[in-house]
């Protein structure tokens, strides 16, 4: 259905895009700084306790995962949903108001998260460091997003839900379930009357706590770094290229495959632990099976460009999205390989693990959010993109940074694993721990330089976006490409 007269309201989408740019720069600048701290430990003393690796690391992970990434997801949702559902958010004062309240409470939550973690208030649970008052506010923020989502779906003129909406809905439901169960905690001050009111203890203990944590932790990657990013690429790659999705059936098959398989793979984080052996094995098996739906989505996207590969030369945004799909394939093959018990014995606790995390986060997640924002900018402001040459430069600088990052961490991780396992002729360990630290110094330096290059690219992204807002090159009409659902 075509609605030529329909005017979409991008207010909330713009606000979240500004946040994504801001949080991307802040979160990854902190990440680059702590990478340099690992290479040059004296940097830990530069800002006292507030500049140490241990204080900054949770801020880096949370700002990137739940600041930059979620802002990008929310921005694209408020853009994509209107267009594929054929409805303007402004048509309902209630839904529009909910969307704006969603933004402002989310901003307050993000600011509180940064300040509290900088002050040292943390649960010490990976990807779930926020203390209980912030968890309660997170629930409110999430319910507001769901209200806006289902409000728009209820108003829709397009009866068929495009595949991107399936993935956004799955993100909402998946994170809601995971977050509620993993963050069951008891505020200690109200029980004991002592200590800080910001402190809590988990309702689970021991092995049970570890199981619930990594059921959540691995699936936070699933439902924040994977499922909604697939929603983004399923809209923006066909829209930008003018090509229909290669196979809608494959997109549905991959969707249900991800939903059924991903939730069982978290046990691979607990191999060789006190978790029952059958659960460790199940985590490994489902991790390997996970290759199928993951590659199904990635291959579907790459085949969408079938016969149109010449666009890689002409469009920097196509470059970002095609390489993002490629990094998704790489990362979703690498993860299952690391989950195989014999490989995990070498890889676990080594730098190969952050290498895997970052080739997915930087190459897949960040590239897609960057590409989506630069696709939306001309439509937000009815202005031409300020500089395609700048986008091209950004692409190559950031790609170089990612390659330096993950290749240095692959080498460092495998080196660590081999040195930790090496024994002399008498069966004694051949190397001390500090021997491995000394050997890895060059690779830590390369990793930090790779991160620095990526951050340089983020500043180029921000500059290009702002200059597009101010551009004199007015677009009389939106760039015309065929698109999913005619949106």
UniProtKB/TrEMBL annotation:
Residues 16-487 form the Cytochrome oxidase subunit I profile domain. Coiled coil: none annotated. SUPFAM superfamilies: Cytochrome c oxidase subunit I-like. Pfam families: COX1. It is found in: Cell membrane. Pathway: Energy metabolism; oxidative phosphorylation. Its EC number is 7.1.1.9. It comes from the Bacteria. The chain crosses the membrane at residues 15-40, 61-81, 101-122, 134-155, 161-181, 216-237, 246-265, 285-305, 317-340, 360-381, 402-423, 443-463. Keywords: Cell membrane, Copper, Electron transport, Heme, Iron, Membrane, Metal-binding, Respiratory chain, Translocase, Transmembrane, Transmembrane helix, Transport. Its cofactor is heme b; Cu(2+). It catalyses: 4 Fe(II)-[cytochrome c] + O2 + 8 H(+)(in) = 4 Fe(III)-[cytochrome c] + 2 H2O + 4 H(+)(out). It is a multi-pass membrane protein. Belongs to the heme-copper respiratory oxidase family. This is cytochrome-c oxidase.
């Amino acid at each position: 259905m075509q609605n030529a007269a329909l005017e979409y309201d991008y207010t909330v989408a713009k606000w979240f895009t500004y946040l994504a740019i801001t949080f991307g720069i802040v979160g990854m600048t902190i990440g680059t700084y702590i990478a340099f701290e690992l290479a040059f430990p004296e940097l830990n003393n530069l800002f006292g306790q507030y500049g140490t690796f241990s204080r900054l690391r949770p801020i880096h992970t949370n700002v990137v995962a739940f600041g930059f990434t979620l802002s990008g997801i929310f921005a694209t949702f408020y853009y994509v949903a209107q267009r594929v559902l054929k409805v303007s958010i402004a048509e309902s004062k209630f839904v529009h108001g909910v969307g704006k309240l969603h933004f402002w409470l989310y901003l307050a939550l993000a600011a509180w998260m940064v300040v509290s973690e900088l002050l040292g208030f943390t649960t010490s649970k990976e990807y779930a460091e926020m203390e209980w008052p912030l968890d309660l506010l997170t629930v409110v923020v999430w319910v507001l997003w769901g209200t806006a989502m289902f409000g728009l779906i209820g108003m829709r003129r397009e009866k068929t839900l495009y595949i991107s909406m399936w993935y956004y809905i799955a993100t909402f439901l998946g994170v809601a379930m995971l977050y509620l169960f993993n963050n069951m905690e008891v505020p200690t001050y109200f029980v004991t009357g002592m200590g800080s009111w910001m402190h809590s203890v988990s309702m689970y203990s021991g092995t049970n706590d570890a199981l619930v944590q990594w059921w959540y932790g691995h699936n936070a990657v699933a439902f924040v770094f994977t499922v909604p990013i697939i929603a983004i690429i399923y809209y923006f790659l066909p829209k930008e290229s003018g090509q229909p999705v290669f196979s809608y059936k494959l997109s549905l098959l991959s969707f249900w495959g991800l939903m059924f398989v991903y939730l069982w793979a978290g046990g691979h984080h607990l191999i060789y632990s006190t978790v029952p052996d059958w659960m460790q094995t199940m985590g490994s098996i489902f991790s390997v099976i996970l290759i199928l739906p993951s590659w199904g989505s990635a291959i579907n996207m790459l085949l969408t460009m079938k016969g149109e590969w010449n666009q890689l030369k002409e469009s920097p945004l196509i470059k970002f999205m095609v390489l993002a799909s490629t990094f998704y394939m790489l990362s979703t093959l690498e993860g299952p390989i690391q989950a195989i018990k014999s490989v995990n014995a070498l890889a676990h606790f080594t730098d190969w693990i952050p290498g895997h995390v970052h080739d997915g986060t930087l190459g897949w997640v960040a590239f897609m959010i960057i590409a989506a924002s630069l696709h939306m900018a001309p439509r937000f402001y009815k202005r031409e993109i300020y500089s395609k040459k700048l986008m091209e430069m950004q692409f190559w600088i950031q790609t170089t940074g990612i390659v330096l990052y993950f290749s240095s961490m692959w080498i460092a991780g495998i080196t660590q694993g081999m040195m930790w396992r090496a024994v002399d002729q008498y069966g004694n360990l051949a190397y001390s721990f500090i021997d491995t630290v000394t050997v890895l110094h060059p690779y830590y330096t390369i990793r930090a330089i790779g991160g620095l290059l990526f951050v340089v690219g983020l500043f180029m992204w921000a500059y290009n976006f702002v200059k597009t807002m101010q551009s004199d090159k007015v677009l009389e009409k939106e760039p015309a490409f065929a698109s999913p659902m005619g949106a």
